[in-house]
Amino acid sequence: MEDGEVSGTNHTHSETGYDPAYEWPGDTEVSQPTTVLNESLSSTFKPWSLLRLLVQTSSILPRVQRLAVLDEHKEVQFGRDVAPAGSGTPRVRLKEMAVSKLHATMFWDAGRQEWAVVDMGSKHGSFLRHGGYSGPTKNVGEDSGVRLSPPRVASFPRALKHKDTLTIGSTTFMVHIHPNRMSCEGCASSGSGDNIIPLFPASKGVKRAREEANPVPVEGRDAKKALTLLKRTLLSRHGTARSSASNQSSSYVDRSAKRRALFPSSPLDTPGAPSPRSDSSSTASSVSTPIPESLAPPQPLPESNIGRQLLMKQGWQPGTALGSGENASGLVEPLEVSATWNRSGLGMPEKAPTPSEYSGNWRESGKQKRWANMID
């Protein structure tokens, strides 16, 4: 056999000195760490572009919170209400009436490989403007861009570009989109994270968590008592701010008792009869009140009286009635004024009641008067 000629006969391993153990085992042992590395990279790598929102103007959000970081989310919502409990979708809450409960949504369109925004049928609308932020405007919608849809009508998805502005209510956001998932200087967050807008509601207090863990059954809850307790709680906040001096000044003062103590001998309020509620001292004072006598007869007017002089110039003579000739039918004597007893009005008897009439039981005295009238 010449050199280089391949023999057609088969040789055994013992004749050729070949052993399968000498073969290269392949990539089976090395592929294990490579597979683990690929899995870790796939878990951290996000197939969508980096999206961050910068607040340009807002009358609702705090001045410190100026950045919405959406690195780990493919969707974000905008609305007036808090996201439902257990929801994993982040939401930027804008608490004003110009914003609907669920106003708009931004999402990553995997088919088009771009970020898009949709108005969810809001009443006051969402405004998108391409080409950057132009400064605050006086009216909402003025130079804010194109409205995505009519009122209460959902819009079609609109593509978002880098440095587009989205206006919702009184808040204007500038969109930052980075395909390399590296933030720029404008959308970089601070080291402490104070300028980041919270996308999920804050954790509840211990008391609220305990109430949710042990909820009160609906049939055992009294709505009326709960409302009364709420009113008392709200009203007690205002009462704690008042000082003790104001509390003392606002206490009730019985001015009637003070007046009775200062003027014990004041006349009775009821005309013509003493009050049954009056005490002995007031009764004694009322009994001792002198009864007014009839007035003295009127005296003629002196000659220096102006009224008399005017009447005499018109023809009147003393002792005659007013008028001339046969028509002089007036009264010669003036009307006499009779005083009443103890401020009594018209119709009261001329005879003043004696103190004996009020002594004893007033019911018995009333019976005696009625019986006397029947006999007469």
If you had to describe this structure to a student in words, what would you say it looks like?
β10 (165-168) and β11 form a beta hairpin. The protein has 376 residues and is an alpha+beta fold. Helices cover 24% and strands 14% of the residues. The chain has helices at 13-16, 31-44, 206-213, 223-240, 244-249, 255-262, 280-287, 306-313, 355-358, 362-375; strands at residues 50-57, 67-69, 75-79, 91-93, 104-109, 114-119, 126-129, 146-147, 158-159, 165-168, 171-178. The strands form 2 sheets. The protein has a 6-stranded antiparallel β-sheet with strand order 2-1-11-10-7-8, with no helix packed on it. A 5-stranded mixed β-sheet has the order 4-3-5-6-9, with no helix packed on it.
